[in-house]
């Protein structure tokens, strides 16, 4: 471990200690979501299953609630419910990553963990350099940096980052989020047969590639996966214009599905579809676990989207990760389901099998609280149905459209909205509420809304409104939260 590495670790540990009480006394701390111990968390990184343990790293700025020279924070879990928080895996201590150990991924090879990440470097004039770097571990706790394994190819700006590595046949592939010199967002491919030497293959798709027209000036955090024979590129493009109900956040996260030709290379794909419709969701990453499940975790935040308006910054921390979700392909689109393991957090069930509300607003006996799961199944919605949480946020359904609204984070006199048009009618809602977060799975994961919410801490009321007649069942579980070691 270099002197600089030790120094940075020491400084970060002091920062955690200094603000521990303030951070932990925040009523907006979450019970079953991963957060930074202090400072800012952004992208999930290096999500991997190895020897019975899931490792999940995260972009971490320990010294500020803004962005900067990121570390890799590190959590691990055997069941995706109970988590252990480790010492940071990587610090920005070397010439090739001194301005940030930026996002990347992990693979297992010959019983070692290989972390690939972007070394972000800025010179005295603020010019950016980018290096794709490797660190290796044989115990899953200590990581040894091996330095730069891939350099910036010609034709691209230094906005070239976030390597995601996977194996196909006997070759390793790395997809990177990029910006071409003519300022178009791209996803580019590298290939290697030993994880050390990487050959640049070219773009697989991007803005003004294939049939896409202008589609953003930068693509971040790409991930190539296979679901049921379909090749899927998950990516976070920047620079899309709001379009009807689509692309309402500052930056987007979604996917293209099709067939990837690894040799040419080229990705023949359909239209872009957003993965989440809420206010805070970005930079998701997936892993394949031992059961063959494709599990996704995202960042519950969006860069440059009034981040400093989140009230937790008064208490020296900001942002969290989403719950892990299992991805499936239904022949048309990705379906996202909260992992089965999350049922471990449930307390006893409270069940109301048939509730009818007719032109009225009602509370339902026992349905309340800040750390709960609510499952609603609808028999009928004649006109409009809404759930109002904590006099703060509401989820409304009418004519095939689901709308989430909350007070605008920056300008509280205004209300902000996110909407989606469903394929059919609303059949079910599954809500995970955790103090200052809300994740809503609509119609068994056909759509998801992920958002931070900042109601009054002591306010626990949940109200249901129907215009016309609505009939539904409701199941509630209080959630115990994860056992955080
Ligand atoms: C996405 C991102 C990545 C980058 C990282 C830096 O949120 O901008 O492209 O690697 O965050 O923290």
Q: Summarize this, please?
A:
With about 475 residues, the protein is mainly beta. It has one helix spanning about 5-25, and strands at about 40-50, 55-60, 70-75, 85, 100-110, 110-120, 130-135, 145-150, 155-170, 170-180, 185-190, 200-205, 220-225, 230-240, 255-260, 265-270, 275, 280-290, 295-300, 315-320, 325-330, 335-340, 345-370, 370-380, 385-390, 395-400, 400-405, 415-420, 430-435, 435-440, 445-450, 460-480.
CATH topology of the largest domain, which one? Answer: Tachylectin-2, Chain A
Average pLDDT, rounded to a whole number, is 97
Could you name the CATH class of the largest domain? Mainly Beta
Hetero groups in this structure are: beta-D-fructofuranose
Number of separate domains: 2
The CATH architecture name of the largest domain reads: 5 Propeller
Rounded to the nearest angstrom, the radius of gyration is 22 Å
For the biggest sheet, the summary is: 10 strands, antiparallel
Q: Please bin the fraction of helical residues.
A: under 10%
Q: Tell me what portion of residues adopts beta-strand conformation.
A: over 45%
Q: What is the overall silhouette?
A: globular
> Helix/strand-derived class?
mainly beta
List segments where confidence is low: pLDDT < 50 over at least 5 consecutive residues.
none
Number of helices: 1
The CATH H-level superfamily of the largest domain is Glycosyl hydrolase domain, family 43
In total, how many beta strands?
Answer: 32
Describe the structure.
The model has no long low-confidence stretch (mean pLDDT 97). Strand 30 and strand 31 (447-452) form a beta hairpin. The strands form 6 sheets. Strands 23, 24, 25, 26, 27, 28, 29, 30, 31 and 32 form a 10-stranded antiparallel β-sheet that branches. A 5-stranded mixed β-sheet has the order 4-3-2-1-20, with no helix packed on it. Strands 13, 14, 15, 16 and 17 form a 5-stranded antiparallel β-sheet that branches. The chain is globular, with a radius of gyration of 22 Å. The protein has one helix spanning 3-24; strands at residues 39-50, 53-61, 71-77, 83-85, 101-109, 112-122, 128-137, 144-150, 156-168, 171-180, 185-192, 199-206, 218-227, 230-238, 254-261, 266-269, 273-274, 282-288, 294-299, 317-318, 325-329, 334-338, 346-368, 371-381, 384-389, 393-398, 401-407, 415-421, 428-434, 437-442, 447-452, 461-479. The protein folds into 2 domains: 3-338, 5 Propeller (Tachylectin-2, Chain A); 346-484, Exo-inulinase, domain 1 (Jelly Rolls, Sandwich). It is mainly beta. Beta-D-fructofuranose is lined by residues 42-43, 59, 70, 102-103, 118, 161-162, 220-221, 282-283, 303. Beta-D-fructofuranose binds at residues 42-43, 59, 70, 102-103, 118, 161-162, 220-221, 282-283, 303.
